[in-house]
Design goal:
single chain; alpha/beta; two-stranded antiparallel ribbon; binds iron/sulfur cluster
Length: 266
């Protein structure tokens, strides 16, 4: 079996414990307004036109997005980094897109990674069936779990899907004793008003906290903005600026009241 992957990041220190290799898998059922991983949205291989400007001249070239990897390919890549994993307590992370969109391949890859002694992490939007999560849980050491908005109607508005299933899956994973790191994107004007923050904090405090390793607050940024043209998509965050350092520090303090470790960034 092969999985469709759009990027492989080595020496990643923001996608789970230690130094990791992150595989970004194609396909995502969400359409977040602030998404900067546009390569991960379509489940298909794509060809996009890359435009480069040199002086007044524009150069175009086709760029293929997505390449098929077998489980063997993945293990081969990881073996090259084994020494870094051993020294740092790192391993492999499957991210996306939404990695559970390629559930069968993900399951096979996680099993193989575990058999070879690699620490495994899955970075997920939480939007998949409970059965899919149950099947991968025994082969996943840690989940990086995104919480984008605690209010269902606003979650639908900003991501295209309800958060009910997401929150149910999160509770199930935690209740099954799995280690979880929560990731909250901080999107000014969308999920950082006082009422939303209180609702988010209440949600976090309603979870069993024994296995909640940390909360990462990920500030909105505009780095992916240029990709929207390339993928023929409309950018909806034109009037939003990244939150200030002062604001992020305030939020760190705010969420620390949950008793869970809070970190700015991944
Ligand atoms: S879940 Fe992640 S990859 Fe999917 S649309 Fe949202 S930000 Fe993009």
């Amino acid at each position: 079996m092969k999985g469709l992957i759009f990027s492989v990041k080595r020496y990643s220190v923001h996608d789970g414990p230690g130094i990791r290799v992150t595989f970004f898998m194609k396909g995502c059922p969400l359409s977040c307004w602030w998404c900067h991983n546009l390569e991960g949205i379509s489940p298909e291989q794509q060809t996009v036109v890359q435009t480069r400007k040199v002086g007044e001249k524009e150069f175009h070239r086709d760029e293929q997005v997505g390449k098929f990897y077998s489980t063997g390919d993945i293990i081969e890549i990881l073996e090259r980094e084994r020494i870094f994993f051993e020294q740092s307590g790192g391993g492999v992370t499957f991210s996306g897109g939404e990695p559970l969109m390629q559930h069968e391949f993900l399951l096979e890859a996680l099993k193989a990674c575990m058999e070879h002694g690699f620490n495994t992490a899955v970075d997920t939007s939480g939007y998949s069936s409970a059965e899919s999560f149950i099947s991968i849980m025994p082969f996943t050491d840690v989940f990086l779990f995104d919480l984008k908005h605690p209010d269902d109607a606003r979650h639908v508005e900003y991501t295209g899907v309800s958060n009910i299933r997401i929150i149910e899956n999160l509770r199930m994973i935690i209740d099954n004793g799995k280690n979880v790191m929560i990731r909250i994107p901080v999107i000014p004007g969308k999920n950082d008003d006082e009422a939303t923050l209180i609702e988010m904090r209440d949600l976090l405090m309603s979870l069993k906290r024994d296995n909640l390793l940390k909360i990462s607050l990920l500030p909105f940024h505009r780095i992916g903005m240029a990709k929207y043209n390339k993928f023929g998509l409309a950018y909806r965050m034109n009037h939003t600026m990244p939150p200030s350092t002062q604001r992020m520090n305030y939020l760190k303090h705010f969420f620390s009241e949950t008793g869970i470790k809070v970190r700015l960034g991944g």
